[in-house]
Design brief:
The chain is 44% helix and 16% strand. By secondary structure, the chain is α+β, with helices and mostly antiparallel strands. It has three domains: 7-53, Transferase, Pyrimidine Nucleoside Phosphorylase, Chain A, domain 3, CATH 1.20.970.10; 81-327 and 433-452, Pyrimidine Nucleoside Phosphorylase, Chain A, domain 2 (3-Layer(aba) Sandwich), CATH 3.40.1030.10; 333-424, Aldehyde Oxidoreductase, domain 3 (Alpha-Beta Complex), CATH 3.90.1170. The strands form four sheets. A five-stranded mixed sheet has the order 1-4-5-13-14, sandwiched between helices. A four-stranded antiparallel sheet has the order 6-9-11-7. Strands 10-8-12 form a three-stranded antiparallel sheet. Helix 9 (179-192) packs parallel to helix 10 (213-229). The longest helix has 17 residues, at 213-229. It is globular. The termini are far apart. The mean pLDDT is 94. It binds uracil (URA). Residues 86-87, 113, 116, 181-182, 185-186 line the site of uracil. Uracil binds next to helix 9.
């Protein structure tokens, strides 16, 4: 006899903290895709999962249901490596590390996401380059990957379509910060892309979805476990997100900062993290003996200009205007800027990083509804970072906004002064480490190496 299910009873079961079966999860995901289950029912289940959690087995079933909702590619050779970040504010590292890795011989099949909650999305950012196509067919994706070694597209209807739908619902229903939902979201699309190895940047700190280090560690373990089930080489790096990465926050502004970094003129934290993650990709690809050697090769690809050339190639291959690399005025920009000045002297000791990210969304740099349209030009640039000394009147950040947004800029200024940037009299003892922990595990060895640990 075939079992019949109802959306109501499955939502109720999860709401009451019961464990869902593989069949129930598959039935629900399929129903969402063929629209026999309404968005409001899916949203209710997402909230129930957010509040009550899922165990490892349920997470695995959810990942599988989302993974097999579309096509699954397979590039079994060791040098096909992908990278993904759990998301942060100003996180544009993909634009730097992907061309670096490609310049060093790694094949990079990248399917990236759009903005989620207070964090920006790689695809929204790259689309600020006029003409850049992120919705190419899977055939073209494979062709570009094999011939050019680097391809960057958005989620298609073919790859993990269940994630595409769930991702946009989570973005507007406050259901992002959940270990099972993040694991299934990331791993369904990463596994479907077929790379042999995956480098995961797991963010922690007050700008990350996993603000506590202990949760970031759990998420890292959950992601590694899922990767191992599919015989992938896995590296997880837990990295700090208690202030924006680099200085720029906002789509076109972040593209400019990425190009500057590829030219060797980027902020130190962004450069260091991008080089470390690219080094991880080179190492997982088997193109360096150690992670340290991978990092050296990655830095050399910035220094000799080969990574910048790869970025130009990427733009050209996908129909974008390559001239932006040398002329930033070709990118969307606002006429107006508003400076937020320090109202007292001291040292910057803390930032409310999520709140800063939300300011970019409010300006139009992110979506507030699933169908929201992105304004590529708006955002802000940090003039100071945690640990910096400031005098009264120094510029803390510069808001890029339109004439019609002066009132919003004033409100942001108020929040920066009263909540989002703390200025204290005493110098902070030590700046937080950027990379807190690295775990590497090659599929064949099934043994985890911890190469860095928080002191
Ligand atoms: N990135 C994703 O792809 N999914 C999440 O849930 C969070 C970050």
């Amino acid at each position: 006899m075939t079992q019949t299910y109802s959306a109501y009873s499955i939502i109720q079961k999860k709401r009451d903290k019961e464990k869902l079966s593989k069949e129930e999860i598959q039935w629900f995901i399929q129903g969402m895709l063929d629209q026999t289950i309404a968005d409001y029912q899916m949203s209710a289940l997402l909230m129930a999962i957010y509040l009550c959690g899922m165990d490892i087995e349920e997470t695995a079933h959810l990942t599988d249901a989302m993974l097999y909702s579309g096509k699954v590619l397979n590039f079994p050779e060791q040098h096909f490596i992908d990278k993904h970040s759990t998301g942060g504010v100003g996180d544009k590292a993909t634009f730097i590390l992907a061309p670096i890795a490609a310049a060093c011989g790694v094949k990079v099949p990248m399917i990236a996401g759009r903005g989620l909650g207070h964090t920006g999305g790689t695809i929204d950012k790259i689309e600020s380059i006029k003409g850049f196509k992120t919705d190419i067919s899977l055939e073209e994706f494979e062709e570009l990957l094999h011939t050019r070694g680097l391809v960057l597209i958005g989620q298609t209807k073919d790859i993990a379509p269940a994630d595409k739908k769930i991702y946009s619902l989570r973005d507007v229903t406050a259901t992002v910060e959940s270990i099972p939902l993040i694991t299934a979201s990331i791993m369904s699309k990463k596994l479907a892309e077929g790379a042999k190895g995956i480098v995961m940047d797991i963010k922690t700190g007050n700008g990350a979805f996993m603000s506590k280090l202990s949760d970031a560690k759990k998420l890292a373990a959950s992601i590694r476990k899922t990767g191992h089930r599919f015989d992938k080489n896995m590296m997880t790096m837990i990295t700090d997100m208690s202030e924006p990465l680099g200085l720029a926050v906002g789509n076109a502004l972040e593209v400019i900062e990425s190009i500057e970094t590829l030219k060797g003129r980027g902020p130190k934290d962004l450069t260091d993290l991008s080089v470390a993650l690219a080094g991880g990709m080179i190492y997982l690809a088997g193109l360096s003996k150690t992670l340290k050697d991978g990092i050296k090769k990655a830095q050399a690809a910035i220094d000799d200009g080969s990574a910048l050339e790869k970025f130009r190639e990427l733009i050209k291959n996908q129909g974008g205007d390559v001239n932006v690399v040398d002329d930033y005025s070709l990118l969307p920009h606002t006429k107006n800027t508003v400076e937020v000045k320090a109202h007292k002297a001291g040292y910057i000791t803390k930032m409310e990083c999520t709140e800063l990210g939300k300011h970019c969304v409010r300006l139009g740099g992110g979506r507030q509804t699933t169908s929201g349209v992105i304004d590529f030009a708006v955002g802000f640039v940090m003039n100071k970072k945690i640990g910096d000394k400031v005098a009264k009147g120094d510029v803390l950040m510069t808001i890029h906004c339109h004439d019609s947004q002066i009132a919003i800029a004033k409100e942001i200024t108020h929040f920066v002064h009263t909540r989002d940037i703390t200025i204290s009299p005493a110098k902070p003892r030590a700046k937080k480490k950027l990379i807190l922990e690295v775990h590497t595990q090659f599929a064949a060895k099934k043994k985890t190496t911890i190469t860095k640990k928080k002191k």
